[in-house]
């Protein structure tokens, strides 16, 4: 559902997120080309997952809300993907089945990761490889990929030429002059776009609060080397499973110390296999061990590269920390390296993981207590200034950060001489329209929801389910069971009351007795057969809830249940 604010005509391009502006994760952007106010073509950029916050009990993932696109399916021309991190491609298996078949383009490694991900779900979509030497024309959009350094090889920005001007889609980047793969950012391409004239720069803003340049990824290898020298047992190295550059550095150190390498965790195993097959990860087959071989080798000959650096409860590293992994058991001489900073909002999960690993006997090294264990893949203030200098945009739209990052980016741009009003910070769901004749402005507000995934499926967890889960976690549950003889639809016997996480029932006889009186009172009001059980249940729930709050100051989840006997 959307609320129209303005109507425009002639050639226009509208840009808005279905995730990614005001959020660090869940990246998905819509570019719309319109003629005389009518939608003609849609280009989609990225389709990533997000992580649940602490209030989303039982939620595994959050994905973009693609419902806006459902009645515009015939206008979608293509998907283009910037790089292979999950916050940019992880939602493809959940979003693609809702949409018609259309081309998907990505650079070589990104295409490999994305194809492996959707193949897991039985989706047969083919992803076409877009080389950095090529260009792509999709309707009114001419797209040129630009190689940029990030925390994964083959990361791309896109120069998107349209009839009204050039948009530079500057998703996650930094300017690493000494990257591990020796493939630095294509500064010449970026400058060439700036010389043509960039109407709007959509720029990564996550590092806008950090001064200077972001450090080179290459410094990590020396730190890993230092940790391995000190480790007398197994070394467990945890990082983002798509961070192939860092995994290669870990592999290099392991080989230097004659340690066998095990990839543990589904995503780590899958991504390392794809990267090796495509030539982005170099490791001799003889150096790799699997499953039961891990148990047979001495600990000081093992280097385990494991998934779960963000503290995900179902990850391989979390299972190792809990002592539940089949092949990897922690011992006192072991070292665990967490080579990743927590995603904003995920700090508590990571700290709990560190505690669990420490309790398991391991020495844990992580970025909060040891420098140079992690280097950001996002540009700091000087990187962002360089991008601004090269592209020379008329307008700027900070992306990939929270609101505070967007404001910090705006301040940085103003310091460089840009007008404050040229840095666009849209509100939630606001659609920006660009044309050759007027300033960009908000023309529509798209209503999107948090689409949450758990074991039940996609979108089955809504606000009511979350509310009940929060109540269960904080207040407990009271189940009131009323026996009813089905053949005559009459109550038979006394109600039974069961509580979990609320009060200890054996010590709360007076409270239980009063609850039973409330239930019986409502049942007596209905003489003879009872047909409107919904009405009865609602009244019981409301009155018991009021009584318990008055007596205990708590509001547990009340669940009246009719038991047929």
TrEMBL record:
Residues reported in the UniProt entry to bind Ca(2+): 58, 60, 454
Cofactor note (record): Binds 1 Ca(2+) cation per subunit. Seen in 1 crystal structure, it is not clear if it is physiologically important.
Keyword field contains tRNA-binding: no
EC number from the UniProt entry: 3.1.-.-
Task of the protein: An RNase that has 5'-3' exonuclease and possibly endonuclease activity. Involved in maturation of rRNA and in some organisms also mRNA maturation and/or decay.
NCBIfam families: MG423 (TIGR00649)
The protein, known as: Ribonuclease J
